[in-house]
């Protein structure tokens, strides 16, 4: 048990694996405007290989390229949006537990974040009615607090979902499009200003008065760039700030994932339970770095 006043030892895997030159190359790539993101994904692989990184490719999304390294997932931004997405996920990961991956570290620029590695859904997982039922329950909980996009129950979104290795529960691995917002944003544009609610599969919102359907993107357009930046706030205040691989810092309970005081919703366990370690996982922040109270000893 760690108490206020104690110190914790943080271990940054971003700092461990990504040296300055490597970061420089990845960042330069992310800033190229005349290269498409598919090509950038291939370039990321080449750069990592050149630097001798022993990774496994997990896949390319719209704005980020994910790799598996040392048992963790690292998301590398391919452009400015990818950087914002990394920051957004770092900021909201704790609030949205246990329904999303744990994000452990994020660079202050958003170039790379490190997070929990999951087993991504295949089409057959997504097609199971029991799985869709659980997804719907998760979305029901999340939409009480967030406006969400890109994670509704739809066959183009299922690669944004998977199973947590810790307990086999279902969770979301790409949740960059969630916004914590006031109810005003959820009003219809009709004269009655009906309160929008989600459709059954959470892919759009509908007005109970005029029945008009609004996409997530329609609603998101109402959020100004200013509001968006305000919402993200200063990422340096959202976790421990470290600049080397190992740091000893005063413990701050705001930055911890506390698996025990959050009651899990009933989600079925697909695999043997792996000990969800006693140790706290620190939502260490930025400029590079992360968690782990204990150097090598795990479990
Ligand atoms: N935590 C993770 N564990 C395993 N695979 C992941 C994880 N995060 C992402 N991936 C894989 O990488 C792909 C791209 O990552 P994603 O977060 O969806 O990026 P984008 O926001 O650009 O769509 C995902 O579709 C998935 O296949
Ligand atoms: Mg995605
Ligand atoms: Zn309406």
What does this structure look like?
The protein is α+β, with helices and mostly antiparallel strands and 299 residues long. It folds into 2 domains: 7-119 and 234-282, no CATH class; 120-231, no CATH class. Helices cover 25% and strands 21% of the residues. It contains 8 helices and 17 strands. It has helices spanning 13-17, 20-30, 37-50, 80-92, 123-126, 129-142, 216-220, 225-232, and strands at 7-11, 56-60, 64-69, 72-77, 103-106, 112-115, 118-120, 146-148, 161-164, 170-172, 178-180, 197-198, 204-206, 213-215, 246-250, 256-257, 281-282. It starts with 6 loop residues before the first strand and ends in a 17-residue tail after the last strand. The protein binds adenosine-5'-diphosphate (ADP), magnesium ion and zinc ion. Zinc ion is lined by residues 188, 190, 192, 194, 207, 209-210, 212.
Could you state the order of secondary-structure elements as H and E? EHHHEEEHEEEHHEEEEEEEHHEEE
* Low-confidence spans: 260-299
What is the residue-mean pLDDT, rounded to a whole number? 85
Bound molecules: adenosine-5'-diphosphate, magnesium ion, zinc ion
CA-based gyration radius? 20 Å
Sheet-strand content, in percent, reads: 15-25%
Give the biggest sheet: 5 strands, antiparallel
